[in-house]
Amino acid sequence: MRSSADLPPLHALRAFEAVGRLLSFRRAGEELLITQSAVSHHIRALEQSLGVVLFVRKARGVALTAAGERYLDSVSRAFSLVAEGTRAVRADAPRQRLRVSLLPSFAANWLLPRLEAFRAANPQIELVLDPTLRRASLETGEADIAIRFGEGDWPGLRCELLATERLMPVMSPALAARNPLAAPEDIHGHTLLFSQRPTEWEVWARQMGIELATGRRLQLTDYNIVLQAAANGQGIAMGRGLLVADYLRRGVLVAPLPEPVTSPLLGYWLVLPRKADANAAATAFTEWLRREVAGA
User: Quick one: which of 72, 93, 217, 282 is 20 to 30 A from 289 by CA?
Assistant: First the structure.
């Protein structure tokens, strides 16, 4: 419902500002997560409402008319003012402290590169990360929430599966060239790297129908060290898809076998105390975390 005939719908203004800034209906749609035809519909409706033409359609993109340039200046300043006011209100909100226990590997390889977006949107939340291999006690208040990797078998806690992990053997390019991994059975000629327990290797081998008993093994303390050892050519690590994506993109590691393996339970879990009270900071973080994982 509009409060004034002088105020067009917000979604139409957002579409206009995006097209005016990007000079592209397609790119505006991608930014706003709507179709290009929906953007066109909003612009046509806005032009009809204003009684002026805002864009000149060209063979390659669009250009603002003189009226469109004036209007874009006003709309952009209005959006900036609203954003500034929103930041000011958020800054005045009471500070909330949220303690999160999680594995160092998940913190370093997945969460930290994304964390700035959460902090910028939630300046009132003081996020305290505790990357640790020790399982923090949520029941006694050592942490407010935890992010754990495994099969979700933690009695007395609320466990929600965030993402099922995709498993794939990974190795350095030099080792792959020297001792190729062309088939699952070829792992018997390599050292298998793992941390704590070889759960991921066991899940992968079971689905591949191969036996691990004869393979050489090297147990390391933390999954970050496992990945470093693999990058140094000391053996093959079982890659967790979320955590090795950047290593693969940069070519530090390669995944020679084409098909990853998934398990219905093995993955990342959001863990909370069973009797936890509603907490605005925890709610904001967990909702953001679900969206980020879903988009990964």
Answer: 93
